Amino acid sequence: MDAAPLHSPFGSTRSDSMPTDKPTQRIASLISAATEMLFALGLADRVVAVSHECDWPPEVATLSRVTSSRVDSAASSLEIDEQVQKQSVAGQPLYEIDREQLEALGPDVIVTQAQCDVCAVRYEDVVELVAASDRLSATNIVSLAPETLTDVLRDITRLGEALDVPQAAAQLVNQLETRLADVEHRVAEVPDAQRPRVAIIEWLEPLMIAGNWTPGLVERAGGRYELAVEGRHSPYAEWSALVEYDPQVLVLCPCGFDVERTLSEVARVTERREWRQLTAVKNGRVCVLDGNAYLNRSGPRLVDTVEILAHLVHPERCGVPASVTDPQQAWRPLANE
Fold it and tell me: pTM here?
């Protein structure tokens, strides 16, 4: 679920560039995608705090949490959307920062985001907190705001440069690009006419189509994606538009939901009369994907997502990706009952 972007994709509120005379020692990550980047860059020993949503890799479980949500995530999809809309209209933040704990930890760098007010702590709230705190007066803020997969790879490079590990960043990006190239090679010979129409549902009620980087992921995986535009925020959609588009492959992956949570609410879409009109449903090409892990976070695992989508869209060309250790936890076909 998305809101308008705030500021430039990557920057520091303290200076035009990070200090280069010594390595940055202590990092607080206020967004799960950044946390995954930091660990992939080999910076686990520098991370002293993470957000309440950070759950990957498993090692983050021992780290201090310095954010919390003001939204009841146990509520239904419709109720969550209503909470978000109500607080947004009132200008209230959806997340809070634990100022006292953050000051006590004393990070040299805070990594946050300016891409989506609904997804994580607002960039301006981080800026205001740091500006008002004498104890954080020397803290730099690094902000990410990717809109495409290319932006995500660039952010890895920039994060590596900002934290004095440019070689590690270059190596990681090269590995990810190699995997993407392998997928693209496997589907390159598929004629346009044989590339199925794909729809990825980011919210069940009300219906929302995944935008931002998602159209590019699907296209790299050999599918067509015409209900949202790459680089633009995820749009709400009418069921009539989904029926008219008539996807041949349909993926359900609500923002922040794992497979089990999505399955617990899947009746919100499967019991609608429009559901059985869809070609994907008739042909048994519907699955539930762990959106929390594989779609909603703008981190390195988006490459895993391309590999998963390639398997779902072209199973005859792309096998189960080696990057996924437990496919049953990552995605599950939805029975056509």
Answer: 0.91
